[in-house]
Each structure stands twice: as structure tokens, then as C-alpha cells.
Automatic annotation (TrEMBL):
Cell compartment(s), UniProt: Membrane
GO biological process terms on file: anatomical structure morphogenesis; homophilic cell adhesion via plasma membrane adhesion molecules
Membrane protein topology class: Single-pass membrane protein
Highest taxon of the lineage: Eukaryota
Gene Ontology molecular function: any one: calcium ion binding
GO cellular component labels: plasma membrane
Classification via CDD domains: Cadherin_repeat
Keyword terms, alphabetized: Calcium, Glycoprotein, Membrane, Repeat, Transmembrane, Transmembrane helix
A Pfam short name: Cadherin
Domain Cadherin: residue ranges: 5-105
Gene3D superfamilies hit by this protein: Cadherins
The protein, known as: Cadherin domain-containing protein
Chief location: membrane
Amino acid sequence: MHLDISESTAAGERFSLTNAVDPDVGSNSIKTYYLSESENFKLDIQTGSDGSKYANLVLKKALDREEEAVHNLILTAVDGGVPARSGTASIIVRVLDVNDNAPQFEQHVYSVNV
């Protein structure tokens, strides 16, 4: 799964994720989702009126493309069966650049002899 997120996106912004499908019903269906460790993202799980679980990715803090242009995350879906079964999906977040840096010279003064 691929997401493009601008580095100007405010913390707290939510992004819907493609949810796992489990043909089992009742307690054997999807029970929860987990997200790999991340400083920038967390998971918010919603329950639909039919009991289905929906995962949303939430931005915890602003992104900076110059620090990290791509974030690789793993989303894990776990069912309620015994034994529990799980499936994983890769989430690749590309950080889109905004013009947040001014050009700079490496030195304040340059000397030239002619």
C-alpha cells in the first residue's frame, strides 16, 4: 500500500488504509490491527456497525522530507480464532516536498584574485 503525504500536513491528520479481508465470521474474523513501531505514525482502529474493524493511519508529528523521505511501515491484521491467525501488509509513505528551505551559500564571504 502506498501513501503520498505532504511534509506540510498537520499532526492529527488521518489516512484511511486498505483493510484486510477475512472470510471467517464471528469471533474468528478480524479482531484488531497492529502497526510497526513509528515515531511519526500511530494506528486508530474503528469498529463499524456490523462489527468490522477499520484501520486509520494517524500522523503523530509533522514530517520532514529532508530528514526522512520515505517511511516503511508494517500493518498486521489479527483474527480472534484459536490459534489466532494474522496477515501483514507493507505501507510505504512517501513524503512530498514543500518549499520550506531557502537557498544558502556555504560561506559568507568569497574571495577571488584576478
